[in-house]
Write a structure and sequence with these properties.
CATH topology of the largest domain: Rossmann fold
Order of helices and strands: EHEHHEHEHEHEHEHEEEEEHHEH
Largest sheet: 7 strands, mixed
CATH superfamily of the largest domain: NAD(P)-binding Rossmann-like Domain
Number of helices: 11
GO molecular function: nucleotide binding
Protein name: Dehydrogenase
Organism: Pelobium manganitolerans
Shape: globular
CATH architecture of the largest domain: 3-Layer(aba) Sandwich
Low-confidence stretches: 1-34
Number of domains: 2
CATH class of the largest domain: Alpha Beta
Mean pLDDT: 91
InterPro entries: Gfo/Idh/MocA-like_OxRdtase_N, Gfo/Idh/MocA_oxidrdct_glycsds, NAD(P)-bd_dom_sf, TAT_signal
C-alpha cells in the first residue's frame, strides 16, 4: 500500500445484523443443482446485477462455465432510488434461474465466488467482511466503499485472511484505455477524462458516479498522484491531479447532461481517444479470470489512491480550490 501504515481491522466492525428480514415473496429458494462454478450476487438494487447475470448465464462457454445461481437482494434500504428497484430485479433474476436467499450466510453456503453489487458503498465493509471470513473470492463493484477508511479495512482483512479481492469500474476496460495502459502508444505525458458525476448525499461527491471517469484516468496514469485541485460549479466538477513525475491529468465530471464517457491521452506515439465505452463484457471477462486465478488485475494501492484522489477533490472544493496532498487523505 505504498508504505502506508496499515490499520488494524476491528473485528467488531458491525457484521451482526446484516441479514435484513425479507418479505414473504423473498423467502429462501434453493437453486437447481449445477456442475457450473457457482456465483452468488449480493445486492439486487442495481442494474449491474441483472446485466451481469444475463451475460454470464446466457453464454456459459464464454464465461468458463461460471453461473450465477443465487442472490441476496439487499442492497440498500435507505437510498430510495436504488431500494425501489429491488422487487423488479428479484423478478428478473428469478426468470434467469437464480434462487433468492434470506441472508448472506445462506448465500455463502451455496457458492464458490461472490459478486458484491450492493449500490450503497456504506454497506460494503460489513457485507464484504462476511464473504472474506467465509474465504470466498470477491469482486466488489464501484465504489469499493463509501470511505477510504472502510476500503482500507476491506483490504486489510482480505490480506489477513488471504482472500482475493478485486474492485473496478467497467470504464477501465474500454479498449483504447487498455491499449494505452499496456504501453502500445509509448510513454504517457498527460491525460483527460470525462463522465457523468451524479451525486448522492450519502457518499462523497465523486464516489457515486464520478468514479467512472476517475478510474479511467488512473487506468492510464497509474499510481503516484501527489496533489489534487478541484474547481466546482453547478455545471461541472473539474479535478486536476499532479503526479510525482510531473505528469498532469484532469477529470471533468458532469452532474447533469448526456451520459457520455471518454477522454484523451497524450502519448509518445500520438494522441489517443480513450472512448468509446463498449459495455460490461470486458470487465466480466476480467472478473472470471480473477475468480480462476485469484490474482486481482488492479492493485489495492491503486484502488485506494483512486478513493484518496476523490477525497482530495472534495477537500479542495471545500477549501476554495486549494491544492490538497493525497498523503493528507491517507493520514486522516
Amino acid at each position: 500500500m505504498r508504505g502506508l501504515k496499515r490499520r488494524t481491522f476491528l473485528k467488531q466492525a458491525g457484521i451482526a445484523g446484516l441479514s435484513f428480514s425479507l418479505t414473504p415473496s423473498f423467502a429462501l429458494e434453493i437453486p437447481r443443482q449445477s456442475s457450473s462454478k457457482k456465483i452468488g450476487i449480493i445486492g439486487l438494487d442495481t442494474s449491474h446485477s441483472v446485466a451481469f447475470t444475463k451475460a454470464i448465464n446466457g453464454n456459459p462457454e464464454r464465461y468458463q462455465h461460471y453461473k450465477v445461481v443465487v442472490a441476496y437482494p439487499y442492497g440498500t434500504q435507505t437510498i430510495t432510488s436504488a431500494a425501489e428497484r429491488i422487487p423488479k430485479y428479484v423478478d428478473e433474476v428469478r426468470q434467469m434461474g437464480v434462487g433468492i436467499t434470506g441472508s448472506i450466510t445462506e448465500l455463502l453456503r451455496q457458492v464458490d465466488v461472490v459478486l458484491l453489487e450492493t449500490n450503497d458503498g456504506r454497506m460494503h465493509l460489513p457485507q464484504a467482511s462476511q464473504v472474506i471470513h467465509a474465504r470466498k473470492p470477491l469482486f466488489i463493484d464501484k465504489p469499493i466503499a463509501a470511505s477510504l477508511l472502510d476500503a482500507e479495512k476491506i483490504f486489510d482483512l482480505a490480506l489477513k485472511k488471504n482472500v482475493p479481492v478485486f474492485s473496478s469500474s467497467s470504464l477501465r476496460y474500454m479498449p483504447n484505455v487498455q491499449a494505452v495502459a499496456k504501453g502500445e502508444y509509448g510513454k504517457i505525458t498527460a491525460a483527460t477524462s470525462y463522465s457523468p458525476a451524479i451525486k448522492e448525499t450519502t457518499h462523497p461527491d465523486l464516489y457515486w458516479y464520478g468514479i467512472h471517469g476517475v478510474e479511467t484516468l488512473f487506468a492510464v496514469m497509474g499510481t503516484g498522484c501527489k496533489t489534487v485541485t478541484s474547481v466546482s460549479t453547478s455545471q461541472a466538477d473539474v479535478v486536476t491531479g499532479i503526479w510525482d513525475d510531473g505528469r498532469v491529468a484532469t477529470f471533468t465530471g458532469m452532474p447533469a447532461g448526456p451520459a457520455v464517457f471518454g477522454g484523451t491521452c497524450i502519448c509518445e506515439k500520438g494522441v489517443v481517444q480513450l472512448g468509446p465505452y463498449t459495455g460490461y463484457e470486458p470487465l466480466l471477462l476480467e472478473i472470471i479470470k480473477f475468480f480462476d486465478t485469484g490474482v486481482s488485475p488492479v492493485s489495492s494501492a491503486e484502488t485506494l489512491e483512486i478513493l484518496a484522489f476523490m477525497d482530495a477533490a472534495s477537500e479542495s472544493k471545500r477549501r476554495g480550490s486549494l491544492p490538497i496532498a493525497l498523503k493528507d487523505m491517507f493520514n486522516k
